[in-house]
Design a protein that fits this description.
mainly alpha, Receptor-associated Protein, 1% strand
């Protein structure tokens, strides 16, 4: 194989492996899009027309302490989207700091590549890669953060139910969960407790919590609590029932994840076979593909195969994703 074919082959292997690692390794479980959309609209109505109430009071107070110039940067639309992603991934902090460190790292890496290789295209590719990878990493951290929260939520609800039975008020039960537990549940319940302490309405506080943790389990819990507060009833019993349902749902998700592991492994094998066969044929008979290399449209075949490979990856992902 000549240098161009080798570069094309290595690049195709890298892109395919990267896509498979991002698309196929993700949890093969999802809730119905219509259900998620319906629940999100329900809580968005609680935020509509609230003006500044659409933002967390804790976050607004932190932003107010920044210099005016930094405040303007932090409130830009792209910065707001990045700030939401940081909150959903459990990292918190200010978006402008993340962007600054990301740009600084990208410049240093690009400078290193340019000094040692003096290759413009390679430098541009590295720059794009350095800017995109942190966002992908944040999205994966978001998935892990939500999974951790959903796993801890049933235990948190049981703790709230026990607290309510001993005579503590509802808001105080949130503080006890934040104090006694750790991880994602402790962080989110602590923020919600602070929001309520600042005078935020319960519905708005839960809507903001769902913005930070877009979880179907949390949406169902918040809906049940808000309905109970309007209609009355035994809240501790409601929380225990929700906890039991969430535990059963989590067990089902674990079962689905185990069963879908076979499909993920098959996807890795199917997506790797073309590259493996191409490499083996070239090692056994280096002249096997000479006719393809020498034909004017031979390289178009590689592009078509690469496109079909990408389509296959997302198609397999759709097949092994199960609504739970």
């Amino acid at each position: 194989m000549d240098d161009q074919i080798i570069s094309l082959f290595v690049g195709a292997v890298f892109v395919t492996a990267f896509l498979m690692s991002q698309v196929l390794i993700m949890p093969s479980m999802s809730s119905s899009k219509e259900d998620r959309k319906r629940l999100k609209q329900r809580f968005d109505q609680a935020l509509s027309g609230q003006g500044i109430s659409q933002q967390s009071i804790v976050k607004v107070r932190a932003i107010d302490k920044l210099p005016p110039f930094i405040q303007k940067i932090e409130t830009l639309p792209l910065m707001n989207a990045l700030s939401v992603l940081l909150e959903q991934s459990g990292k918190g902090g200010f978006a402008y700091k993340y962007v600054f460190y990301n740009i600084l790292t990208t410049l240093l890496v690009c400078l290193f590549v340019w000094i040692f290789f003096h290759h413009l295209i390679a430098t541009i590719v590295v720059a794009i890669f350095s800017l995109v990878v942190p966002i992908i990493w944040l999205k994966k951290q978001k998935t892990k953060y939500i999974d951790e929260f959903e796993e801890q939520l049933p235990e948190a609800l049981e703790m709230m139910a026990r607290t309510l039975r001993t005579g503590y008020p509802f808001i105080q039960s949130l503080k006890i969960v934040a104090t006694e537990m750790d991880g994602a549940v402790s962080t989110e319940f602590g923020i919600t407790y602070e929001e309520l302490n600042y005078g935020r309405e319960v519905g708005i506080a839960f809507a903001l919590m769902i913005e930070r943790v877009p979880s179907m389990s949390l949406s169902a819990m918040a809906t049940a609590i808000l309905i109970q507060r309007e209609t009355g009833g035994n809240l501790s019993e409601v929380l225990l029932n929700i906890s039991g349902v969430l535990r059963d749902r989590f067990k089902l998700q674990r079962t689905v994840k185990t069963l879908s592991a076979e499909g993920i492994f098959s996807a890795w094998v199917l997506c790797s076979v073309p590259f493996f066969m191409f490499l083996m044929f070239n090692l056994i008979d280096p002249e096997h593909f000479d006719a393809l290399y020498e034909h004017p449209g031979g390289y178009k075949v590689f592009y078509v195969i690469g496109t079909l490979e990408v389509i296959a990856i997302f198609w397999i992902r759709k097949i092994i994703t199960i609504d739970v």
